[in-house]
Each structure stands twice: as C-alpha cells, then as structure tokens.
Amino acid sequence: MTAVNSRLLKSFALGVLTAGLAVAPMMAAAQTTSTPVLMMPAPSTLSLSAAGEVAATPDMATIHFAVVTQSGTASGAMKANSVKMNEVMAALKAAGIASKDIQTSNLNLNPQYNYADGQAPKLTGYQAQNQITVRINDLNQTGTVIDAVIKAGINQVDSINFGLKNDDAVLDQARQSAVATLLKRANLYATATGMKVKRIISIEEGGPVYNQPQPMMFRAKAADASTPVSAGELQLSVNVSATFELEK
C-alpha cells in the first residue's frame, strides 16, 4: 500500500468514527423521549340506593311444636316423650300433613335440679323435649292442626311464621319498584345539577327482606272451638344500588 492510500484510508476511518459519535447521542435522545399521553377527564358519577316494597298475602305457615315430658329417670322422660310424639305424628298425618312437611328440629334431655339456699343442688329428675317444625300449605287448616296436635300430646307451641310457597313473582315486582325509584332519583339529581343521565355503570341487589308481624306465641290449653289464627299480610322488600354516569 502506498503512503497516499494509507493516508486516505485513515482519513475515511476517522470520518466514519466522528459521524458515529455524532449520531449516537441523537439516537439516545430519541429513545428516551416519551410519547405524550392524552389524559381524559374522569366521568361524573352518581351512586344511589333504593328499596322496592310489595305487600303479599301469605299462602303457607310454618309452626314449631314441642312435646315436653318429665320423669324421675332419663329413660322414663324419653319414653314418655316418645309415646306422646308418636301420637302427635299420627294426628298430623290424619290432618293431611305430608311426611315431607314434618321435620324434627330439636331434641334434648336435661337434668332438673332443686336449688335451695345454702344447699348443694339436688337432682329432682329429667326433662325431655322433642321439637318439630310443621309446614302447613293450606292456611285454612292452621287452627285445626294446632288443636289436633295439642289433643295428641303437644304441650308447647313455640311460634308460627307465615310465608309464600313461591315468592319469585312478588320479588320481581319489588325489584321493578326499586329500579324505577332509582331512575327517578337519578334524573332528579342530574337535572338539579344541570346534567343528564348518560348510562348505568353498575347495578347491585342487596337481597330480599321479609317483614311480617311478630311471630305468634302459644301455650297449650284446652279449647272447644278451633284455635283462631290470622295470617295478616307480608311486606317483601328488595334493596338495589346503582352507579350512574352523568353528562352535560
């Protein structure tokens, strides 16, 4: 290689190196420059809750009965209880109550003590209790069933509750009422603030609630006439919450 060619080659290499050093910062700057992000304003929202309530006439009842017996021995208390409860079951079936509508809900046996002042508790015997839950699908039978089981041996009627065999249609009415109230209030608030409802963002149900008269309490007693029972009226309510988006 001649001296002239050698000098030309060195000059070319130096030029390439210089150009590379000049371009590198520009590339680095391009890589570190972030793309601008357009921030959208948060939408205006409104959250509300409302309850829809519908009245309904009960068409079934649930009654809690119990046979309570006492004896000087545990086995004696349980045997006496078993005899009476078998008679109660027979009376229920004779009244037209299906086996699937009768359920034992509680069974217990407890010692009984006499607590005298200054003396140790003295065992006096045992008490057995057998509680059953009975579903009555014909409310016209309620008083008759109560009388029948009392005659058969039931000596405690703890409570009676009324309900619906199928509450779907009634609850749907309550839901519609709650949603209608929500929409009305949402439009009211939107108009009052110079806006309007754009859409529903979310809607949530809080679940149905049954409001009924205080459960009836009974104690067994002889009666010539059928025990009067009034079912009254149920109040079913559904709570609904919703979030709305508002716009100008």
Description:
With 248 residues, the chain is of the alpha+beta class. The protein has two domains: 42-59 and 165-222 and 229-248, Protein of unknown function (DUF541), domain 1 (Translation Initiation Factor IF3), CATH 3.30.110; 60-163, Protein of unknown function (DUF541), domain 2 (Alpha-Beta Plaits, 2-Layer Sandwich), CATH 3.30.70. It has four helices and eight strands. The protein has helices at 3-32, 74-94, 142-152, 168-192, and strands spanning 44-56, 60-71, 102-114, 122-136, 156-163, 196-211, 216-219, 234-247. The strands form two sheets. Strands 3-4-2-5-7 form a five-stranded antiparallel beta sheet. A hairpin with a 7-residue loop joins β3 (102-114) and β4 (122-136). α2 (74-94) packs antiparallel against α3.
What layout of secondary structure does this protein have?
Blueprint: H1 3-32, E1 44-56, E2 60-71, H2 74-94, E3 102-114, E4 122-136, H3 142-152, E5 156-163, H4 168-192, E6 196-211, E7 216-219, E8 234-247
Helix pairs in contact: 2-3
Which descriptors apply to this entry?
alpha+beta, Translation Initiation Factor IF3, 2 domains, three-stranded antiparallel β-sheet, 248 residues, elongated, 4 helices, Alpha-Beta Plaits, five-stranded antiparallel β-sheet, single chain, 35% helix
